[in-house]
């Protein structure tokens, strides 16, 4: 069931590891990077709640979620095929919007799909399995460029726009993998048929974009308490992860290879080294996701997630000061634990706190809690001069001195704060009554 998630997360891994460097190759400054990466937060903010509400109300002969899986997969494949051919920053940004739209159209129904297929007692295992596939996929996405270099491809072989051919190769492989695995998953594990009562309820529900927007608004107003409290955790958690992914290659370039020049061989090596580090922490995430299953049964997903986030925060704080390549991999243990937990435990808490018939829309709204911190990070840290207007506050330069190591220190503290925040969540070990209690107290 989750194999298609592997292809989808391979695509996300390619974005996390390569989009910052691609913009740098095309001439962007470090301070511009967060705003140039707005496509992810903005498409997630707009697309996922709408797709969630629409998929809850879809009654096609292929199922509720499947049409969105397939349409999103096609858009994702087109974006991956064309992104490494970018000839300018404008072209790369435009293709990033297409790629992120495809990823987000597919992502939200996949979350709801797991909740649809599994009963409450199985969901924490289902979401942690999905987390394991996330770790495996992103490990492969980050590691593949280094494997290509090991097989003889020149790391410094670049196209006329400065983009390495290793990037082109791995993006094209990602397009085939994403489309192929999602198709395989859909064909092998079809959705469960809707019951007569559920189908009648969906058919009787109002249709159209106005009704969809009203459904999203009503779901926000009646949001369960547990989900509201997850919002503070998400603020610190995703602000920190977004900053980490954006700037960690630049920290490695400065600390280990003594360069900040994107055209240098040292920077190319730093990008490959970051890929190896990320592959390692995603391997840790993959293994940890399975290891957490019995622990979550014992102590609950909330306390487990808190411990993992604190471990991740310590890892990020340490990484900002490491100057030896071999030692870079030690902080990845904590970061891997945090990432493996992030992709599973919060969704286990959420799925048991929301009404089953509104799983799609609440999964989409929960994604708003992911992308809004990313959007906040982009606006606060970056500054982009469009000629007629300046966007952003530029705190990366003004407050942090343009030093990515200071940014990583901030992100490490943010993950620790997220770990403390999740302890406030009354998470759903009493799964049968969580949604009712949450609605009553909201």
From TrEMBL:
What is the name attached to this protein's record? MFS transporter
Q: Which parts pass through the membrane?
A: 35-54, 66-99, 132-153, 165-187, 207-226, 238-257, 277-296, 303-322, 328-349, 361-381, 406-423
What does the entry list under GO cellular component?
membrane
Q: Which Gene3D superfamilies match?
A: MFS general substrate transporter like domains
Write out the annotated subcellular location: Membrane
Q: Which domain of life is it from?
A: Bacteria
Which GO molecular function annotations are given, in alphabetical order?
transmembrane transporter activity
InterPro entries per the record?
A: MFS (IPR011701), MFS_trans_sf (IPR036259)
Q: How does it sit in the membrane?
A: Multi-pass membrane protein
Specify the signal sequence span.
none
Any keyword Transport? yes
Keywords of this entry = Membrane, Transmembrane, Transmembrane helix, Transport
Is Oxidoreductase a UniProt keyword of this protein?
Answer: no
């Amino acid at each position: 069931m989750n194999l298609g998630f592997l292809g989808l997360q391979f695509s996300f891994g390619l974005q996390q590891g390569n989009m910052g460097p691609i913009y740098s190759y095309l001439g962007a400054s470090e301070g511009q990077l967060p705003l140039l990466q707005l496509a992810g937060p903005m498409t997630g903010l707009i697309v996922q709640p709408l797709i969630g509400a629409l998929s809850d109300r879809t009654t096609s002969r292929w199922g509720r979620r499947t049409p969105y899986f397939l349409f999103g997969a096609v858009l994702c494949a087109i974006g991956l095929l064309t992104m490494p051919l970018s000839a300018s920053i404008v072209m790369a940004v435009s293709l990033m919007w297409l790629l992120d739209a495809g990823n987000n159209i597919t992502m939200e129904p996949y979350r709801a799909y797991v909740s649809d297929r599994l009963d409450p007692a199985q969901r924490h295992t289902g979401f942690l399995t999905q987390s394991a596939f996330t770790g495996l996929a992103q490990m492969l996405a980050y590691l593949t460029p280094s494997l290509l270099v090991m097989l003889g491809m020149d790391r410094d072989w670049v196209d006329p726009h400065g983009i390495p051919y290793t990037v082109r190769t791995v993006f094209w492989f990602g397009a085939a993998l994403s489309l192929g695995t999602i198709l395989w998953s859909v064909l092998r594990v079809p959705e469960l048929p809707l019951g007569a009562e559920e189908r009648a309820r969906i058919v009787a529900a109002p249709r159209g974009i106005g009704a969809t927007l009203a459904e999203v608004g009503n779901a926000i107003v009646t949001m369960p308490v547990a989900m509201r409290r997850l919002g503070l955790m998400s603020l610190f958690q995703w602000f920190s992860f977004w900053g980490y992914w954006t700037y960690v290659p630049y920290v490695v370039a400065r600390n280990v290879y003594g360069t900040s020049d994107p055209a240098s061989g040292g920077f190319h090596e730093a990008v490959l080294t970051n890929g190896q580090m990320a592959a390692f922490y995603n391997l840790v995430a993959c293994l940890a996701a399975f290891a957490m299953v019995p622990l979550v049964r014992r102590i609950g997903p909330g306390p487990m997630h808190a411990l993992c986030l604190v471990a991740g925060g310590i890892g990020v704080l340490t990484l900002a000061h490491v100057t030896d390549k071999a030692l870079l991999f030690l902080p990845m243990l904590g970061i891997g634990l945090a990432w493996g937990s992030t992709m599973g435990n919060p969704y286990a808490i959420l799925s048991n706190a929301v009404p089953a018939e509104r799983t799609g829309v609440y999964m989409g709204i929960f994604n708003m809690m992911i992308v809004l911190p990313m959007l906040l990070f982009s606006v606060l840290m970056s500054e982009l001069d469009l000629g007629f207007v300046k966007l952003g506050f530029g705190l990366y330069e003004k407050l942090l001195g343009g030093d990515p190591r200071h940014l990583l220190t901030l992100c490490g503290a943010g993950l620790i704060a997220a770990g403390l925040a999740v302890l406030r969540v009354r998470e759903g070990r009493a799964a049968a009554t969580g949604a009712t209690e949450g609605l009553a107290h909201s």
